[in-house]
Amino acid sequence: MVLKKYKNSLFYFGVTGGFSALIYWIIGQGKLLQLKKVPIGVKASNNSFNDFVNSMLHNFQDPLAILLAQIVMIILTARIFGWFFKKIGQPTVIGEIIAGIVLGPSLVGMYFPEFSAALFPEASLGNLKFLSQIGLILFMFVIGMELDVKVLKNKASEAIVISHASIVIPFAMGIGLSYFVYNQFAPEGVEFLSFSLFMGIAMSITAFPVLARIVQERGIHKTRLGAIVITCAAADDITAWCLLAVVIAIVKAGDFVGSLYVISLAFIYVLAMLYVVKPFLKRIGDLYAEKENIGKPVMALFLLLLILSSYATEVIGIHALFGGFMMGAIMPDIAKFRMIFIEKVEDVSVILLLPLFFVFTGLHTQVGLINDPYLWKVTAAIIGVAVMGKFLGSALAAKFVGQNWHESFTIGALMNTRGLMELIVLNIGLELKVLTPEVFTMMVIMALVTTFMTGPALNVLDFIFKNKREEESVEVIDESKYRILISFGNNEKGKSLLRLANGLTKKQKKTSVITAMHLSQSDELHSFNLEEIERETFEPVFDESDQLGVKLLSIFKVTSDIEAEIADVANNGDYDLLLVGLGKSIFEGSLLGKVIGFTTRIINPDRLIDKFKGKEGLFENSPFDERTRQIVAKTKTPLGILIDNDFEQMDHVFVPILKSDDAVLMDYVQKMIYNNNSKIHLVDSNGFVKNNFVIQSTVVTLLQKYPNNISVISDKEMNTSFIKQQDLMLISLESWKSVMDTAADWLVDIPSVLIIKS
């Protein structure tokens, strides 16, 4: 019996010990062989530490180690700059572009040359280039999928007129500008035709992704103006990329006649994609349209076709990016199908690989080359021509087809956005040696300025014209009505919040208004499926409202800053109560939860800013996740935070009274009793129910009217059995903080919690 009990241990130690001894013996015999092989006089190094240091230095210089260090530095810098520019109301892509310039010779390379040379040695730039090109191919694939080609067929022809005018006018002005700068700034040996065509295409490009995000964030995507702008941008993108393919063919061939061979091959490629590959992809899309997930074989097939498409266009001579764009444009016209591919591809390309492209661009952008007033005047002239051609060209075309001046200038301001798409064109020009480093730097500055000015230009136009947007239906606010705004992130939270709002207003439907609001992050949405996302988001909540008999208003918005937008809508909407949801953390009370909370407080820039401003103690415990903390800080409206633990009803509610300020809860107690016939248990921990006049008088009144609905208990009666019988805990924000600090044992068993901030 004893042997059987320990047989596993004996076997383990016998095998490991025996074979370890065998290994030791073989190594000893091997050393004898080494002595015979190593020549006399050659000694192994006795300085192990120096060997270790030399090995580490060699590892640091390994190409893979350098590439990984570059990626870490690039992503961190891009995230920081992107966050900052997002906070000042600019597209994050502006910050990421500037991050690339900062890491290049314009700043880090100028003031920290040793660090720059160590992080970005010349030999490593090839790896960075090819990785960034893969990222661009994936990005162009996503851009192609985002374009809704049907919109070009369904929308009015005026959008096509505006789009093509917004291309041909700046294209002509770019060629005109090239006439004046060719002798001084064109590279040696580059023909005027090649140089002028690249200047023209660089002036006429529009950044469709940035424009679409701005349109969504400004809330004009549902209007006629928004539809026209999106259509213009889509037509602009398709036309500009086709023109770019032709320009690249001409540049590589040297003249137009020589380029006809390349253009002919490109035409055959486009026909094959439209009439062979597209029908094939459509059949696959039809087969998998109803499936929740797309299997790895299908993903592999589509990615293989993407790579083949890019390979074909690169070999033909019109650049691999056009192949990625074309593959995206012919993807099956099924919103769900496209979204699955976008979600799988976009994060890798946008977060990981695109910042590499920005830095690769920044390494070639040398602001120091623009080192005298004349060169800055030329840069200003380039910016002026770009703005006049795109902004005024689009605006005048819009006015000609019947838009008013406000809408015309708005279209012009949006079409003047260049962003990342401009950088792609410029890098191609630099790669083909059509642009010198000086011209390249000037054009990068132009791209930044024209993209940066879009937001301020729209603000100025709104201020000048003071027009109400057509989608804004002004609600006549009845101050006598109790108005609740519920803001939800997912369907289940929305339904829970609606049940809670209904419990507060059930018998006062005629004198109350409930509005449901869903906000989506602008960089997570795409213009072609906005309406479908809105419908899918609100459908379950509207179904719940029908079951409850609640008339529900809805708000759907796209924003770059969800917390600020929630607070802004609540603060400016004359709401009596804002309800938001918060999930019950699976890490609550655990060591891991404390570590996660600590790290988010340290690395979150908003927390650091608040710390420096003196708004909060950085190392204090926060009773909320970061998003809820931001909403609490920014909202001036009375706020209710529901910690949803399978909330269904509020027939039994207990209310801990821990501070004199908890008197504010008595309004909600009255609403729950009157509207929902709730049974309320006031937990009098510190004697405030008896000693606070407001609480005491309210309790006396309620006991007279609803003797069966309210009771006062001591905290000793609040045991596990009592808590498990409750549906909801109602508590003030300050009391919730106190409870969290004391880490009371009964928190483990609490039901859903409604935290009120007055």
Structure commentary:
There is one protein chain. This protein is 66% helix and 9% strand. It has a 10-stranded mixed β-sheet, with helices on both faces. The longest helix has 33 residues, at 256-288. Among the domains are: 68-465, Na+/H+ antiporter like fold (Up-down Bundle); 649-758, Rossmann fold. It is of the alpha/beta class and 758 residues long. Residues 468-477, 584-603 and 611-621 have low confidence and may be disordered.
Question: Which terms would index this structure?
Answer:
single chain, 758 residues, alpha/beta, Na+/H+ antiporter like fold, Rossmann fold, ten-stranded mixed beta sheet, globular
Strand order of the largest sheet: 3-2-1-4-5-10-9-6-7-8
**Residue-averaged pLDDT:** 81
Query: Sheet with the most strands?
Result: 10 strands, mixed
What share of the residues lie within helices?
Answer: 55-70%
Give the DSSP E fraction (strand runs of 2 or more residues). Answer: 5-15%
Named CATH architecture of the domain at 68-465: Up-down Bundle
Instruction: Supply the helix-strand structural class.
Output: alpha/beta
Radius of gyration: 33 Å
User: What is the count of DSSP helices, taking H or I runs of 4+ residues?
Assistant: 33
| CATH fold-type name of the domain at 68-465 | Na+/H+ antiporter like fold
Indicate the overall shape.
globular
Report the span from N to C terminus. Answer: 71 Å
Number of strands: 10
Unreliable spans are 468-477, 584-603, 611-621
Top CATH class of the domain at 68-465: Mainly Alpha
